[in-house]
Amino acid sequence: MTRTHTNGHAPAGVHHGDPNAHRPEPIDVEETSTLIDEGVREELRAIVARYPQPRSALLPMLHLVQSVEGRVTAAGIEACAEILQISAADVSGVATFYTMYKRRPVGRYHVGVCTTSLCAIMGGDELFAALQDHLGVGNDETTEDGVFTLEHIECNAACDLAPVMTVNWEFFDSQTPDSAVDVLERLRSGEEVRATRGARVCTWKQAERVLAGFPDGRADEGPTSAPESRLGLRIAAERGWTAPPVPGRDEPSGDRNPQAQTQAAGAQGHAEDASLKQAESKESGVSADEARPASGPAGGQTGTSTATEEGSARRGEGENGTTKGGEA
Amino acid sequence: MADTLTPVLTANWGDERAWKLANYERRDGYQGLRRALTMEPAEVVALVKDSGLRGRGGAGFPTGMKWSFIPQDNPKPKYLVVNADESEPGTCKDIPLMMASPHTLVEGVIISAYAINCHTAFIYVRGEVLHVVRRVQQAVREAYSAGYAGKNILGSGYDLDIVVHAGAGAYICGEETALLDSLEGRRGQPRLRPPFPAVAGLYASPTVINNVESISSVPAIVRGGAEWFSSMGTEKSKGMTIYSLSGHVRNTGQFEAPLGITLRQLLELAGGMREGHRLKFWTPGGSSTPILTPEHLDVPLDYEGVAGVRSMLGTKALQCFDETTSVVRAVLRWTEFYKHESCGKCTPCREGTWWLVQILSRLEAGRGEPGDIEKLLDLCENILGRSFCALGDGATSPISSAIQHFRDEFEAGMHTPAWELFPYEASRRFAPAPATAGAGA
């Protein structure tokens, strides 16, 4: 078991010594079997058809290859090169540039922990150390049962909800080591797990298919926003602050007053958040753990009224989402 | 004088299912498009110019002026590319915007594309935000079904195709020319300018690249007018914008306010720093903007105000750290980010960020060597202005500004580990958990 982050008495996240010391396992180039068949090629060509120039399709094509193969394989590279009429070396150069493309097999669940400055300081380092310890793998390694791949990721644009974890690129906001381990345990046991801001967690391959531009009908799952995202909106409603009135409105819908709507929306947000005890939950880890059970369907959404409302909305929408996906 | 907070872009973020077309339309959604289609494209450009809207992605370039640089006599197709590759450390405004109200962006895309006579627009979303990609994809499909996109939009004779394109994990693709290379299916490496994208961008054709928030501001400008928009903000920084408060703040989150609000005002709204702690340092607009201190609490957060204290407004990503935080640690982790994200095209950035990490690592561990601080500054000087693009410049900002404000802590790195000076568990958001606290030690 590799422990790249272990270093005497230094805290989690501190790693020194030879920066070249961590050499990943070589890519298995002997492995030539492939799942890319004519159907997949057809979809690869469908991606090409979206763009004015064929080569623009390469990034989504590689996402699709990953969704089929579980990584970027030599056969996948060849297929892209052949369809785009470019060299395999060109495709390979692209596939090795971007961190989301993996040349080694990825687990059913890709687990990312943000360890860029802010998240690291807010607890991301301990989160990552706890998951390393729990899973018994190092960075960018997959558990032997092929269930989890762990990776420390760079800033994922959710800094107001630090520390952040992702599972198959769904947000698990405001995590603690315990809540993060709990999410993984529930996934391992086959339980259906919902992201705190997102949908039911799918497999990594399914996520890659969505990124390739093939919708999975889950867009309508999950909340509109996190309570933190609408904090300013809530305060504006409380204090009666609005944007200036729009002069001389004469559109067909001119009977509606956007300011009134803003206030109403803010008030609604306020009502939803009324039961939030954000201050308390951030001050003490104990109440934070209680208030933010990342294990519950609402995950990082604190406050029961919000969780219930949004949870029920999600349940209702799941079916719609599926229907829509079928149409698309 | 506008109110302290002015929700426009965030106004519907509390709505149930705000991301659905019908709910967006209920709030005057696509009324901006309807009005724009009654105007000449050049009139839309003029309107956005008059509004004073400046780019919300960091640089603050006037949006309308950027559009007017597109040579309309060029026979090649024109392209609009939305930079939705939000990944500057600390920046977290575009992702919640696209998740909550993707139609705000899509409507902005259609109006902006119309203004520059473009018939194919791209939304380049970073790949690591699956649910945002889903919501944007769905919003575009809904817009097509409703006749807002595709052929003969709302009977106007105007055609537009919108392609949602997911990236694959590369901060450098937030740099506009690297983004174009990436969108052409290549490694995301920046291009030499000139030619500028307005002349030779995507497929060597005239191209406008704008940030999500800039484009999302356009529908409101068309609905409200230039005067309405410029009634918010300061003399040269017009309109409302989203400020993102993160870190050791009592209540973190998003605040939409007129440009020019101060961090003191925002912190007051956010309940101050967490109980019992005080502000030590902060970034005004992400990690690439030089850090500031409590003495800058009253600096107006507009383009000129922040530039006046030798930093940059950037993305208005206000990362606030309290007195428990080691500056050396924070700067090291940002530098590791730049090292990881350097595309490798130019030597100063590729090699320099590597060297910076090595020196900062030993300073963090209390094993700094005499002359290390001077060496850091010397390296920064050799990267800043000598790199191919702004990534290298940005990498030096936290280091040189941190040494300027907190040189003592770097000096201490000659003999004492940062985690002894500033026990790391004290900076965490969650309380130490005995069961797992030892896991990484």
Automatic annotation (TrEMBL), chain A:
<feature type="compositionally biased region" description="Low complexity">
    <location>
        <begin position="259"/>
        <end position="269"/>
    </location>
</feature>
<feature type="compositionally biased region" description="Basic and acidic residues">
    <location>
        <begin position="270"/>
        <end position="283"/>
    </location>
</feature>
<dbReference type="InterPro" id="IPR041921">
    <property type="entry name" value="NuoE_N"/>
</dbReference>
<keyword id="KW-0479">Metal-binding</keyword>
<comment type="similarity">
    <text>Belongs to the complex I 24 kDa subunit family.</text>
</comment>
<feature type="compositionally biased region" description="Basic and acidic residues">
    <location>
        <begin position="15"/>
        <end position="26"/>
    </location>
</feature>
<dbReference type="GO" id="GO:0046872">
    <property type="term" value="F:metal ion binding"/>
</dbReference>
<keyword id="KW-0408">Iron</keyword>
<dbReference type="GO" id="GO:0051537">
    <property type="term" value="F:2 iron, 2 sulfur cluster binding"/>
</dbReference>
<dbReference type="InterPro" id="IPR042128">
    <property type="entry name" value="NuoE_dom"/>
</dbReference>
<dbReference type="InterPro" id="IPR036249">
    <property type="entry name" value="Thioredoxin-like_sf"/>
</dbReference>
<keyword id="KW-0001">2Fe-2S</keyword>
<feature type="region of interest" description="Disordered">
    <location>
        <begin position="235"/>
        <end position="328"/>
    </location>
</feature>
<dbReference type="Pfam" id="PF01257">
    <property type="entry name" value="2Fe-2S_thioredx"/>
</dbReference>
<dbReference type="GO" id="GO:0003954">
    <property type="term" value="F:NADH dehydrogenase activity"/>
</dbReference>
<keyword id="KW-0411">Iron-sulfur</keyword>
<dbReference type="InterPro" id="IPR002023">
    <property type="entry name" value="NuoE-like"/>
</dbReference>
<protein>
    <submittedName>
        <fullName>NADH-quinone oxidoreductase subunit E</fullName>
    </submittedName>
</protein>
<feature type="region of interest" description="Disordered">
    <location>
        <begin position="1"/>
        <end position="26"/>
    </location>
</feature>
UniProtKB/TrEMBL annotation, chain B:
<protein>
    <recommendedName>
        <fullName>NADH-quinone oxidoreductase subunit F</fullName>
        <ecNumber>7.1.1.-</ecNumber>
    </recommendedName>
</protein>
<keyword id="KW-0288">FMN</keyword>
<comment type="function">
    <text>NDH-1 shuttles electrons from NADH, via FMN and iron-sulfur (Fe-S) centers, to quinones in the respiratory chain.</text>
</comment>
<keyword id="KW-0004">4Fe-4S</keyword>
<dbReference type="InterPro" id="IPR019554">
    <property type="entry name" value="Soluble_ligand-bd"/>
</dbReference>
<dbReference type="Pfam" id="PF10531">
    <property type="entry name" value="SLBB"/>
</dbReference>
<dbReference type="GO" id="GO:0003954">
    <property type="term" value="F:NADH dehydrogenase activity"/>
</dbReference>
<dbReference type="GO" id="GO:0008137">
    <property type="term" value="F:NADH dehydrogenase (ubiquinone) activity"/>
</dbReference>
<comment type="similarity">
    <text>Belongs to the complex I 51 kDa subunit family.</text>
</comment>
<keyword id="KW-0479">Metal-binding</keyword>
<keyword id="KW-0874">Quinone</keyword>
<keyword id="KW-0411">Iron-sulfur</keyword>
<dbReference type="InterPro" id="IPR019575">
    <property type="entry name" value="Nuop51_4Fe4S-bd"/>
</dbReference>
<dbReference type="InterPro" id="IPR037225">
    <property type="entry name" value="Nuo51_FMN-bd_sf"/>
</dbReference>
<feature type="domain" description="NADH-ubiquinone oxidoreductase 51kDa subunit iron-sulphur binding">
    <location>
        <begin position="328"/>
        <end position="373"/>
    </location>
</feature>
<dbReference type="GO" id="GO:0010181">
    <property type="term" value="F:FMN binding"/>
</dbReference>
<dbReference type="GO" id="GO:0045333">
    <property type="term" value="P:cellular respiration"/>
</dbReference>
<keyword id="KW-0285">Flavoprotein</keyword>
<keyword id="KW-1278">Translocase</keyword>
<keyword id="KW-0408">Iron</keyword>
<dbReference type="InterPro" id="IPR011537">
    <property type="entry name" value="NADH-UbQ_OxRdtase_suF"/>
</dbReference>
<dbReference type="InterPro" id="IPR001949">
    <property type="entry name" value="NADH-UbQ_OxRdtase_51kDa_CS"/>
</dbReference>
